[in-house]
Amino acid sequence: MTFQEQIQEGIPPVLPQPQVYDPAINHAPKRKEILTTEEKKLALRNALRYFEPKDHPELIKEFSDELEKYGRIYMYRLRPDYKMYARPISEYPGKSEQAKAIMLMIQNNLDYAVAQHPHELITYGGNGAVFQNWAQYRLTMKYLSEMTDEQTLTMYSGHPMGLFPSHPEAPRVVVTNGMMIPNYSQPDDWEKFNALGVTQYGQMTAGSYMYIGPQGIVHGTTITVLNGGRKISKNGEGLEGKLFVTSGLGGMSGAQPKAGNIAGCITVCAEVNPKAVHTRHSQGWVDEVVKDVDTLVKRVREAKAAKEVVSIAYQGNIVDVWEKFDAEDIYIDLGSDQTSLHNPWAGGYYPVGLSFEEANDMMANNPELFKEKIQETLRRHATAINKHTAKGTYFFDYGNAFLLEASRAGADIMAENGIDFKYPSYVQDIMGPMCFDYGFGPFRWVCASGKPEDLAKTDAIASKVLEEMAKTAPDEIKQQMQDNIKWIQGAQENKLVVGSQARILYADAEGRIAIARAFNEAIAKGEIDTVILGRDHHDVSGTDSPYRETSNIYDGSRFTADMAIHNVIGDSFRGATWVSIHNGGGVGWGEVVNGGFGMVLDGSKEASKRLESMLFWDVNNGISRRSWARNDEAIFAIKRAMESQPLLKVTLPNKVDDALLS
């Protein structure tokens, strides 16, 4: 069968042969035993409902074995034999160009060069899934190949509920992931209901089909490291010769060494998984690999003396690095952590003193001891960081729930008031006041043709737009503009593409609309092919997350989620091609609600109208909320927005004299 025929087939009428488990692939760890005997029967019933009764006798033992061995039913037998990657949009079967674009993005999320655990349909973060099983993948792709622009596909945590009558201006796909009743949103609830096959953790851009590999975060990390460097700089000096220490080389965290190189510092990034280290090194995202901590000490001293710009992966536990550098008196200028601590008990963070294999075995077979070891490691980790910060190190939480989980482990991580953490979130200290409050966030696009020359043309278009805007930009946002112009002009030479021909930069509503408009005009002229717009959920308006995206909201509303819900509702009727809303992305199940979108630009007048309406709302919804929280930068930004659009009228806050409250 051709690729197109396999897509259109969906779940095969005749079962394919069982697949051989490939140990060379980076697989998800075994999930812990959590279902009762009766619940296991329910999980099997749930899995078998995708198949004709004639196939149940053959599949039931296989699915039971998967549940026993891996803690989940992935349906490996149904994994397609074609190569998984984002093909040019013209190669996808279908009646709707918008649906074809979504198929392209789904396959990009599962590309072996992009996905963390591709055979388990997990894109990044240890559990950020596109689908729960391969039957869902096959059925979804079939639906998309049949869809017209008069239909909408509804997705329930990876399950394609079906095609419903709709209209051309409605989203082609509506996605929800993990939207639990609040009282059922604890970590063990995810383990249980995911094992039952009724929900999944979509992370942010995994389950919303908008992940573009580690490039998606390398820009934000570059901006964060640059501005972290500016906070500690004296007399305007840069990061030359300065040391940044962090950990994690997974789907998102793998961006850190590349970002350190672009920012111009020495980066040491620890990672316990040898396959993740190999992947990032082979892709050129980290320069060197060191497996011995004494060798690491020597290498860092050499780099400091020569003021090198170099990134070093330490294959081992980050706690060993912090403790050794303290003992050897190696000064760390910037420190952070980007392990998946939103997922601490299932492979997001590993205990010190155990090999990777020993830890995985304990995780599956002795989860209570594993939890004890993790919390013991977090306490040691925090203690070592405290020793360095006492010497002057600037440490920031990277929104991965490190400080939150360390506090739950009893680590010395709380401020004197017993309420706040000792160290700021990078959003509180850097990204919130400098970017999000002004409306700057991660705008991204994918060239649907798959042609590198199309990406180069879009880079040039975006650069030209930003340069023109910078000429008249207010002083308050000139630095943000210049950082992004520098970024986009160096994007090609930094070889950021992994998977699809994609790009990301930070822009405000004005910039996003202007760039998108220029793309659409270029498509209409035949200069480039179709472009797919999107963003990370980690943005101005898409995410309510009290320990990350909305951590710089101080009016008491940071634990509310109205903004994210309004964002996705508003995007859906203003022209988004697909919309998504998730529980749990980035910082943990039950800790955040986040939403995203995708939008196809095809050069039409209709696309031009959609982009103007939707992108304006997508950003200014968040600015208005931040303004109401009395954030001065957001008040400035929303006033500018109201001046540019007479139909926008936002309630502004009145400040209260502190003396009246004393």
From TrEMBL:
Domain Urocanase N-terminal: 84-210
Keyword line: Cytoplasm, Histidine metabolism, Lyase, NAD
GO biological process entries: L-histidine catabolic process to glutamate and formamide; L-histidine catabolic process to glutamate and formate
Entries under InterPro entries matching the protein: Urocanase, Urocanase-like, Urocanase_C, Urocanase_central_sf, Urocanase_CS, Urocanase_N, Urocanase_Rossmann-like, Urocanase_sf
Free-text cofactor note: Binds 1 NAD(+) per subunit.
Gene Ontology MF term list: urocanate hydratase activity
Pathway note: Amino-acid degradation; L-histidine degradation into L-glutamate; N-formimidoyl-L-glutamate from L-histidine: step 2/3
Pfam families assigned: Urocanase (PF01175), Urocanase_C (PF17392), Urocanase_N (PF17391)
Location in the cell: Cytoplasm
EC number: 4.2.1.49
Domain Urocanase Rossmann-like per the UniProt entry, residue ranges: 213-430
Top-level EC class: lyase
Binding site for NAD(+): 125-126, 203, 271, 398, 586
Catalysed reaction, written as an equation: 4-imidazolone-5-propanoate = trans-urocanate + H2O
Cofactor field: NAD(+)
Record carries keyword Lyase: yes
Gene3D superfamilies cross-referenced by the UniProt entry: Urocanase like domains, Urocanase superfamily
Domain Urocanase C-terminal residues, every copy: 436-639
CC per GO annotation: cytoplasm
Stated family: Belongs to the urocanase family.
Cited function: Catalyzes the conversion of urocanate to 4-imidazolone-5-propionate.
Protein name: Urocanate hydratase
Gene: hutU
